[in-house]
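Input record (Table S2, row 262):
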Amino acid sequence: MSASLSYLERSKLHSNPTAKAFLELMERKKSNLSVAADLNKKAALIELADKVGPYICLLKTHIDVVEDFDQDLVDQLTALAKKHDFMIFEDRKFADIGNTVKLQYGSGIYKIASWSDITNAHMVPGEGIVQGLREVGLPLNRAMLLLAEMSSAGTLAKGDYTVKTVEVARKYKDFVVGFIAMERYADKEGDDFIYMTPGVGMDQTSDGMGQQWKHPREVVFDRGCDVIIVGRGIYGGGRDAAKEAKRYQEAGWNAYVERISK
Ligand code: 6AU
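Output record (6-acetyluridine 5'-phosphate complex):
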């Protein structure tokens, strides 16, 4: 059912303030594009965020690959998020016991919970990982995605693993607002999960290292997902990142409009 509703209508179904604000932002900005900014220099990351900022709803970071990370990077990214009206998703892929992920999320060098609106986690350790992250994230109004599936060839996140992941998400809906997934699963009464899908590219289908890229229309229209996550398709190979971001924004948004109008 959720797949046929607008992002704005769905924002009203969420109690998590970040999920609500994120769905409103998508509608306001006409963007379901997240850029995966996998760059290892602070200046390059800031430059990319500023260039693609007008076209995205979400900037996805891997903060631990930045060689010259400092608090100023976080300050500049959060200022750009305000300037261009996007949110930040640190793609940390937590994967440890509850007590450890609490420390990894809230402290250390990166203090992810202090600046990242959304983060994600694997379900490998069991539901304690959600409990630990939720303890830190909920008081800060943060939101989380569970990795229910992956885009890479040979992924073990499938079948029963995916089904169990969705069950855990339903238990902690105040914090787990969606999934990293390759397709939308059957909605149950009361479900409204946000589906974010990596492995999106319009010009190539594979990177030779297991990544598998699909077209935005296939992801949003055919598979019913909500957010396209695009990295190298936008900034790779000397591409003009702003131009490509606009192209992906239009492709993603058109597929969404087509989906909710059918
Ligand atoms: O478009 P790309 O292939 O350059 O970048 C894809 C981005 C990378 C991956 O770490 C991430 O998406 N990713 C994820 C996420 C977002 O959790 C899961 C997955 O299954 N595949 C994947 O590529 O930053």
